[in-house]
Amino acid sequence: MELVLVGLSHKTCTVETREAFSISPERKRLLLRALASGKLAAEELVWVSTCNRVDLYAVGKKKDCETALIGFLSDQSQYDDNKSSGGHLYSKTGKEAMDHLLNVACGLDSMVVGENEILGQLKDSYYGAKSAGTTGRLTNTLFQRAIGVGKHVRANTKISQGGRSVAFVAVQYAGRIFGDLDKAKVLLLGAGEMAEAAASAFAEKKAALTVINRTRAKGQELAAKFSAQSVPWENLETALSEADVVLVSTSSSEPVITKDGMKKIMALRHGNPIFLVDISVPRNIQPEVGSLSNVYLYNIDDLERIVAENLAQLSEEIKKAQGIIDAKSAEIWEKFSQDSSVDPAVFTEPLRIGTRGSRLALAQTNIICDLVRKEGVEISQKIIKTSGDIFLTDPVEKLIAADGKGLFVKEIERDLLDGGIKLAMHSLKDLPGDLAEGLRIGAYLKREDPRDAIITRTGCSLADLPPGAKIATGSSRRRFQIARLKPGAVFCPLRGNMDTRLAKLDRGECDAIVVAYAALKRLGLENRITQVFTADEVVPAPGQGIIAVEAATADLQTMRLVRRLDHARTRICAECERLFLATLGGGCATPLGAHAELTEEGLLFRVFWCSPDGRQKLNLETYIDCSKMTESITDLVARIKQLV
Q1: Which residue blocks in 554-608 are alpha helix, DSSP H?
Q2: Residue 296 sits in a domain of what CATH number?
Q3: How many CB atoms within 10 Å of residue 118?
Q4: Which residue segment(s) compose the domain that 189 sits in?
Q5: Does some domain include residue 437?
Q6: pLDDT at res. 82
Q7: Mean pLDDT of 404-420
Q8: Half-sphere exposure of 332 (CA within 13 A, CB side)
Q9: Active-site residue numbers?
């Protein structure tokens, strides 16, 4: 997996092209949908969309990911000037992509070199992606370090001195085209960060400033900071008819000033000229407005002349900043390369991985072994019997009550701590919320389908089973949820490996069994499935469908190897489900379902909770902010405890 960047900026194209590629809320949903479906060939993703750039940073296989990102931007853009979008797009990988990110964070790649806004925009982009669950180990590390380098450069050079920003330069430009701004009536459309920077610059020029914003309260708040006037959006036509200079900086995806609307306003102005400066992307003033008599329209690309003049004054500070970036870049990349790479030569003998001895456990362990061998490291298996494998006739709930949580893992973890094995394979749903001290889950493999499936003896669906049909399951979670779907069903216990369970069904000891779809698929038994329940019908167990690889925290070489097997999006879902399990309290026998799913709207979290006697039940769905996962889960658990 490699860091891949595809993007375009003010250096490669005009504002007309940039606005065609900008990431709107709808395009963001399409981007997340493409990521979730695998169409982007990426495991991690951060998108940066500002007035001067659209950059997509992803982690994936270089060629596949690069091609997919270029395809997405080209397909989604509305650019139709009969030119190939490829002429505007750049692509970079590895350290070159990281260096680009560092230069962006420090303001060296901005139109207004040294501007402060880009650092805030980069942070917003990163936390937006983190909140949506699309970041991972590589993007988390690099964006956090890049933001830190951006702060360091600004603190140790004068590159941002004087409040440099696009808005600041736009006000300079307005002064040049109008003259003395202290004699001008200035109208500011917008109340965001760029608008606030512009308001500050206009206030320094002692201009008579009026602020107008769709959300009146935000407009009033901004106006109050600079002793300006605030008017409601409904008065826009009147405000435009009275202004000399108008600066527009809103987040609207459509023009807020149109040619037809401006025609009416110019009639009210009786031919008096008006100067319009639009620094929004997408542009908020229709370009055709500039064709009207006595209307002078300028956009963000027209600021280049002042930018060039300011650039000459910063040459020494740019050199200092570049020196800091070069040093930090080498340090960050060396550290990251060390943490990410594996030298097979350090493993002088085959690694031993501990596993239970069932056919399913061995099939899952073989998946890990194949991945380890692809890293050039030899590996062997050690079968370990757990308490859950020994006491096959007792119900799971009874064994846990007598022996505590970790019924299927304690013996394996003990061998891992004693050094008898270097790795441990677990079905994540069997792991308790708290691991043994000194151990850590180094990797979550890509999740298999987490849903539950039913196999009936006659091949009929759950709904078509006769009244009183006997359904076998060892899970109280499944039992209570299926009882709602099939009132009147009779439930009986089910233990043992998959072959034992299927044999019980085939002998006629029950009419149906309910098992994990992932287990059947990994054993090549999909043909036995009668029906697969949706995650809404039967909420899966926390961690269902996920293989976890555990190792000793202190074994750095092995942990470094294991991390290369990790699947970033699966990790986010797994950590969410396990955090919920640990916060609420409960082991693998608790009647509890928890399923996290990354969607185009964010991390969708489904919960099923039931009291041990089945009298109280609760189902709910919510979206989790991945950038504040602990806080979100803590609040959710508190809510559940209030409800039950």
Answers
A1: 556-563, 568-584
A2: 3.40.50.720
A3: 27
A4: 166-310
A5: yes
A6: 37
A7: 83
A8: 26
A9: 51
